[in-house]
Amino acid sequence: MNALKNSYAALAILLFCSSATAFQWPENKKSAVSLTSDDGWNSQLLQADILDARGIKGTFYLTVVGMGMARVAAHAKKWAKVHRRGHEVGNHSFSHWDDRVLATKTKHDIADDVGNMEAWLLQHVYGNVPVDHTFAYPQGNGTVGSQEIDERKQAGACEYERLLSPMVSGARTLGSGENRPEMIARRRFSISGIAIDGDDETAFNRAKKAIDNGITKGTWTVAVFHSLGDEGDGYSISRAAYTRIADYLVLRRADLYIAPVVTVKNHIVANTPRADSACALQ
Ligand SMILES: [Zn+2]
User: Fold this and answer.
1) Cα–Cα–Cα angle for 177, 37, 277, nearest 5°?
2) How far apart are the CA of 10 and the centre of ligand 1, in A?
3) Which of 2, 170, 172, 272 shows its CA 20 to 30 Å from the CA of 92?
4) Nearest to residue 280, comparing CAs of 170, 180, 162?
5) What is the Å distance from ligand 1's center to 97 Cα?
6) How many angstroms is it from 117 CA to the middle of ligand 1?
7) Which long-range contacts (CB under 8 A, 24 or more apart) does 149-154 make?
8) Strand 256-258 and strand 191-195: pairing?
9) pTM of the predicted model, to two decimals?
10) 248 C-alpha vs ligand 1 centroid, how far in Å?
C-alpha cells in the first residue's frame, strides 16, 4: 500500500514539475525566435528592409573599429533610422578585439571599450535617449582567457557579466542557438546564438532545423547572421537565402513569437517567478 502511495506521490510530483516548466510564450505561441546580425555590414541595412517588409523586428550588433568596421560610422544616420523603426541596435564592443588581443587586455580595458561603444550608440543611434539593449560578445566568447578570475586581466563568465551589466541588460554568445527560458531567466548574459552561413541550401536548412526544434521543445531560437552576397568575411549568405529564412518565419508565424533579443529576454525575465542571476548568488 505504501509503495502504491509512493508511486502516486512520485507521479503527482512529476506532473507538477512538467507543468511548472512549460514556459508561457505570448499569445500561446509555441516558441520564440530572434534574428541577430553582427558587425554592421552595409548589407544588413537591406536585411532590416527585408524584415520590415514582413513585419519582423531583428537585432543588429554594431561595432565601430577593428575588423574594418569603420563603415558603420559612415552609415550612422541609417542605423539611427533602423533603431527608430523598432529594431534593436545593440553593442558589439567598440574595437572588436579578437581572442588574441582580448587576452592581453585588463577587464577594465574591456569595460572601457564596451563603454565607448555605448557612448557612440547613445549619441549616433539612440538620439541621446538611453535605450534598453543587449550585447554580443566579439567572436562569441563570453569569457576572456581562462575561466580563472585574475584581478589583472582574466574575466570568467560571471565576472564578464558583472562588468557588462551596468551598461547592457543581456548578452549573446555563439553556440547551439537553443535557449531554455528557465535557464535564460538566470543567465541572461549567456544567450546562445547559432551561426547561419554556407550555401543557400545549407543556410536555409540550418535555420529551419533550429526553428523547428524550438517549436517542438518550446525554447527560444536565436540565429546569427553576418553579411549578404559578395560583401563580407566568409560568413555571408545570399540575399535569396536570407529572404527564404524570413519567409519561413512568416509561414510559421502562428507558432512563433518573433522579436528582438532584448524583447524576448525581458519577456522571459518578467514571466519567471525566480529570475535572479545565477552569478549574483555565487
Ligand atoms: Zn563580430
Assistant:
1) 50
2) 48
3) 272
4) 162
5) 9
6) 13
7) 152/106, 153/103, 153/104, 153/105, 153/106, 153/107, 154/107
8) unpaired
9) 0.89
10) 25
Contacting residues for 129 by C-beta, under 8 A, at least 6 apart: none
Where do the structural domains in the chain lie, given as residue ranges? 31-277
Which one is predicted more confidently, 177 or 3?
177
The string over 42-61, giving b where at least 16 C-beta atoms fall within 10 Å of a residue's C-beta and e elsewhere, is ebbebbbebbeeeebbbbbb
**How remote is the CA of residue 15 from the centroid of ligand 1, in Å?**
43
- 82 and 57 Cβ atoms separated by less than 8 Å: no
- Residues within 5 A (CB) of ion ligand 1: 38-39
CB 57 within 8 A of CB 88: yes
Per-residue pLDDT at 7 exceeds 50: yes
CA of 213 to the centre of ligand 1 (A): 26
State the distance from the centre of ligand 1 to the C-alpha of 140, rounded, in angstroms: 8
- What is the chain's mean pLDDT, rounded? 88
The reported pLDDT for the residue numbered 169 is 97
Separation of 107 CA from ligand 1 center, angstroms? Answer: 19
46 alpha carbon – ligand 1 mean position (Å): 18
pLDDT in tens, 210-265: 999 999 999 999 999 999 998 877 899 999 999 999 999 999 999 999 999 999 99
Q: What is the pLDDT of residues 129-162, one digit of tens each?
A: 999 999 999 988 887 654 444 444 456 778 889 8
Gyration radius of the chain over CA positions: 20
SS3 content of the chain, % helix, strand, coil (to 5): 45, 15, 40
CA distance 203 to 200: 5
